[in-house]
Amino acid sequence: MKLDLRFSDRPLESLWCEAVAALVFQGPDLTDGALSGLNEKMARFLSDLQEKGFWTGSRGETVLLASQDAIRAEKILLKGLGDSSDYDEKLLVSHIREVGTTFHKMEIREFGIHIPVLEGSEEEHAFHLEMCARQVAHPFFQHHRGDPDFTLKIIFSVENCTDESLGPVAGRLREYFDLQADFSVVIDLEGENQTNTT
Hints:
The chain is an alpha/beta fold. The chain has a single domain, classed as 3-Layer(aba) Sandwich (Leucine Aminopeptidase, subunit E, domain 1), CATH 3.40.220.10. It is 34% helix and 25% strand. The protein is built from five helices and eight strands. An eight-stranded mixed beta sheet has the order 3-4-2-5-6-1-7-8, with helices on one face. Strand 5, helix 4 and strand 6 form a beta-alpha-beta unit. The chain is globular and about 45 Å long.
């Protein structure tokens, strides 16, 4: 198995991949932040779902949408984290692993993900990204660890991250995945130097 892992400040709607996923706190603000561009590209369809009560971001709520060619990815997966006051790492681990399991079952090998930054926990966000990278790839390793022809590409769409904060994450992930796969990690941030670790 080969793993291509990327951290990019490009928004979900601009990523070239089969699907994009966003973990979302309950009652998300779709006029600002990571989902605003996605919502606009989808002709405010996410806002319509929210206003009708079909999608709220409550804990465990999962919505899978076809992008209808509104963005570069074909599918959109939204996973609710519930109220931000109830957020913890255990919840994050279980939900991000569910995203990996869902995409594995759908035979999706190239996807983008956005993990929200919890206000007041900005310094822990790089660690959360590292943990999510391990967990979302786990279902694929369970089934394809010994398959040299299987390639998995995961792009984390990040906000307000720097090469300085992600560099150590890339190094630790390289160590973690080293014996399990052919692995590369790319940090691609606008205005920052691109860093490759292979």
